[in-house]
Amino acid sequence: MRLFSKYTWRFNAQKKEIFLTFDDGPTPEVTQFVLAELQKYKAKATFFCIGKNIQNHPDIFKNIITNGHAIGNHTQNHLKGWKNKTATYVENVLECEKTIEQFKKPEYSKLKTQNLKLFRPPYGKIKKAQAKELIKRGYKIIMWSVLSADFDTTISNEKCLENALKNTKSGNIIVFHDSVKAAERMQYALPKVLKHFSDKGFVFKSI
């Protein structure tokens, strides 16, 4: 089985659609900023949440849901797949799944239920055995086609924006982070990305 080809890197969009994703939240103030910007453009996104951050900030997590965005699993403790045994890694993903299920109620009962189990490996690092086990458990592994690199403290705000604008086409999955570390670059780039592509007739959709 060619696992690499089983990961989702982009979508074959027939329309002008872009898929924004945000990793590492929910984070006080930062996630709220993202939600407010998305709201301005009626944009939907997918948030790959860390379980412990959901537990620490349940109200922000529920805001993501009630704003109609999709939720993905980013492990309970932001584990790097390459540095952890498969059993440990999968257990951590399942712990995050329990956290998501625990805190998304009763908000989801009022909305259309999300059927897909989405997973993104922290750092994009995952062993074949780990991926195989998660796929067997019904997870869809979502990677990306455009990396804003907002997490990189050595790049400028302008470079982060350029990374997103220059490389994005229909069907692309863009990665931003709603984390403290990425906040400055993300908060500079995201509003400009939303405006630029909205002006060109693109729609931002959740996965």
From TrEMBL:
> Origin, by domain of life?
Bacteria
A matching Pfam family: Polysacc_deac_1
Quick one: a GO biological-process term for this protein?
Answer: carbohydrate metabolic process
User: Which GO molecular function annotations are given, in alphabetical order?
Assistant: hydrolase activity, acting on carbon-nitrogen (but not peptide) bonds; metal ion binding
Q: NodB homology domain spans which residues?
A: 16-205
Q: Does the keyword Oxidoreductase apply?
A: no
Keywords linked to the UniProt accession: Hydrolase, Metal-binding
GO CC term (a single one): membrane
Which protein are we looking at? Answer: Polysaccharide deacetylase family protein
- Which species does this protein come from? Polaribacter butkevichii
Q: What are the leading ranks of the lineage?
A: Bacteria, Pseudomonadati, Bacteroidota, Flavobacteriia, Flavobacteriales
